[in-house]
Amino acid sequence: MVPIQKGNIEVIEKVQKKATKLVTSLKHLPCSERLKQLMLSTLKYRILRGDMRHMIEVFKIVHDFHHLEAAVKKSEMSTNYRNLHVIIT
User: Fold this and answer.
1) For residue 48, what pLDDT is reported?
2) Are 35 and 20 within 8 A, CB to CB?
């Protein structure tokens, strides 16, 4: 992932603010409230959330949780397949 520079974040945030003002019924509200009403988050938050997801994936790899998750998913798929087979027959 390419690091995003602070200046770029600010430019994109300004575009987002201007875009939310295009919704005329929300134009009078502060930016934070417009974002809430439109169910949007700030770019800074989305970047942080993405970084957190990446850190969680690294943690899973380091602690060998991916094998456990794969086994659980395989078991769930097998159970779902058996249930589907019972429904069909």
Assistant:
1) 76
2) yes
